[in-house]
Amino acid sequence: MTSPVGLHRVLEPAGVLPQAAWRLDTRAEIAPNEVRIRVERLNLDAASFRQLSVKHDGDGDAIRAEVLDIIATRGKMQNPVTGSGGMLIGTVEETGRRSPLGLKAGERVATLVSLTLTPLVVTDGLAGWDGRSEQVPCEGWAILFARSVAAVLPADLDPQLSLAVLDVCGAPALTSRVVARYMAERAAEGDARPVTVAVVGGAGKSGSLSLAAARRAGAGRTVGVVPVVAERDALVAAGLADVVAVADARDPVALSSAVTSALGVPADVTVVCVDVPGCEHGAVLATGGGGTVIFFSMATSFAAAALGAEGLAADVTMLVGNGYVPGHAELALGLLRGEPGVRGLFESRLAAD
Predict the structure, then answer these.
(1) Phi, psi angles (nearest 5°) of residue 73
(2) Distance between CA atoms of residues 292 and 182, nearest Å
(3) Do residues 150 and 95 make contact, with C-beta atoms less than 8 angstroms apart?
(4) For helices 328-338 and 340-352, what crossing angle results, to 10°?
(5) Helices marked H in 104-221 — which ranges?
(6) How far is the C-alpha of 314 from the C-alpha of 62, rounded, in Å?
(7) How many CB atoms lie within 10 A of CB 32?
(8) Phi/psi class of residue 129: alpha, beta or left (left: φ > 0; alpha: ψ in -120 to 50)?
(9) Pair 169, 177: CB distance under 8 Å
(10) How far apart are alpha carbons 8 and 3 in whole angstroms?
(11) In a 3-state reduction of DSSP, which class is residue 16?
(12) Which of these, 23, 202, 229, 350, is most buried using a 10 Å CB contact count?
């Protein structure tokens, strides 16, 4: 019997969902409720790619070899250190007669579920990838389940650009939802204070989209926090934040001071979009009482975040950005099309890669 969440693809250990499995069944034959994708390109999660790059000191051949080994061993791309994977684009090759995804053979799609739960086979040895960028051209196949999510690639955008945006589309959608909720609550209470938003890692993919989403949702004042001057200059030029501050997000006092100085008050909403560990306490400290911290980084230690908030006696709500919000793909692509600053940052990043 085939499971809508892919339990029939779990080889070991028994009884867990595909994301938690050590190894998946990658056979090309599909069940009636599955879809097979002919893979064109992977997008590795930023935290995963950084960890691999640091581990191998930027040696592209070594990075490529480890990615191949992970996929071959596990039947999916799941970094054993970060636990994260990424997503992919490709062409629908075959759809099962009972698949509810509405996809058709020949459509080019982006999978909006993690590679950590997607059965994946690479057949070209990643020969077209130098191991030095998050985007990985490749050949092979992947399997989607009945409960998977995928989006047809828009015809007006370069596929690599779409892939980069859709990889992080959950971040702006959740940011928009949280900011809109604060706006509604304050309006109902007759509270005229502006909603303040800090985005840590504001010049990155998810960060730039989150800044744009916060502003569209009505945030009254925003600050983008970046680690270096070059990113500050790029984010200032993009015009996505009211203030851009330079601070090491791993230094709790420095991050909190940078946010409070920029906004004049602690943030109502702090969005963490960096791909390095150790940023939890600073994010909590930078957020005012009754505020919300949204963690979108897979480098986050949620134990550190929870215990740190307790130790600081911080009355904050902490949300895990799980990558899925209804309408997230459309919202992110709309921001890309409608915000020149967002598009410029994405295109510069792709050119540098």
Answers:
(1) -75, -40
(2) 10
(3) no
(4) 90
(5) 159-166, 170-189, 205-216
(6) 43
(7) 11
(8) beta
(9) no
(10) 6
(11) coil
(12) 202
177 is written with which tokens? 């939802």
CA pair distance 240, 244, nearest whole angstrom = 9
Q: Mind listing the pLDDT tens digit of every residue in the chain (353 residues)?
A: 689 999 999 999 989 999 999 999 999 999 999 999 999 999 999 889 999 999 999 999 999 999 999 999 999 999 999 999 999 999 999 999 999 999 999 999 999 999 999 999 999 999 999 999 999 999 999 999 999 999 999 999 999 999 999 999 999 999 999 999 999 999 999 999 999 999 999 999 999 999 999 999 999 999 999 999 999 999 999 999 999 999 999 999 999 999 999 999 999 999 999 988 899 999 999 999 999 999 998 788 889 999 999 999 999 999 988 888 889 999 999 999 999 999 999 999 888 87
**Spatial separation of the C-alpha atoms in residues 149 and 100, rounded to whole Å:** 10
Looking at the DSSP assignment, which residues form a beta bridge with residue 338?
none
Q: Which domains does the chain have, with CATH numbers?
A: 7-156 (3.90.180), 170-352 (3.40.50.720)
Burial class (CB in 10 A: 0-12, 13-18, 19+), 78: buried
Sheet (strand 267-272) strand order: 243-246, 221-226, 196-200, 267-272, 287-295, 317-320
Cα angle at 344 between 338 and 349, to 5 degrees? 130
- As a whole number of Å, the end-to-end CA separation of the chain is 43
d(CA 345, CA 318): 28
Q: Please write the tens of the pLDDT for every residue from 269-307.
A: 999 999 888 999 999 999 999 999 999 987 888 899 999
> Up-side HSE of residue 279: CA atoms within 13 Å toward CB?
28
| CA 260/CA 52 separation, integer angstroms | 34
Instruction: Name the residue type at position 8.
Output: H
Q: Which two tokens stand for residue 11?
A: 């080889």
